[in-house]
Design a protein that fits this description.
Helix 2 packs antiparallel against helix 4 and helix 5 packs antiparallel against helix 6. The chain has 6 helices and no strands. By secondary structure, it is mainly α.
Length: about 130
């Protein structure tokens, strides 16, 4: 039975990564000023992150339905665009704590979750249309 599901297993990764980025990206739009103040970044950078997260998550989903060469390009571009966002999240918010559990020094938690997302994105980047 598992062998019959194998060609569709890419959906587990696509749905999980897309849902995380779409949720976090859409959630930033109504709070751009607050996020900008919290991170000490210009509002346009927070807007770019929100667009990258939302657009990247949507592209990972949509690209699975495209023709082979566009599926490959869409999956790889979305992954390539989201990796720097996660590196920025680690550098600005989650470094150097590892555990994702919030603490007094890291109220947003450590970088464990973001590193996991980067590794999934690297998988999608390398595999492209075969993911």
């Amino acid at each position: 039975m598992l062998n019959t599901l194998a060609p569709h297993a890419h959906w587990f990764l696509r749905l999980s990564i897309a849902s995380v980025f779409i949720y976090h990206g859409v959630g930033k739009f109504p709070n751009l000023e607050m996020m900008s103040a919290m991170l000490g970044l210009p509002i346009y950078l927070v807007l770019l992150v929100a667009i990258a997260e939302t657009g990247g998550g949507l592209l990972i989903l949509v690209s699975a339905f495209l023709k082979e060469n566009l599926k490959d390009l869409g999956t790889r571009l979305a992954s390539l665009g989201l990796i720097p966002v996660m590196i920025g999240a680690i550098a600005l918010v989650h470094w150097p704590k590892w555990s994702f559990v919030a603490s007094e020094t890291h109220p947003m938690g450590g970088m464990e979750f973001q590193v996991t997302l980067i590794l999934i994105l690297l998988y999608l980047l390398v595999k492209g249309k075969d993911a």
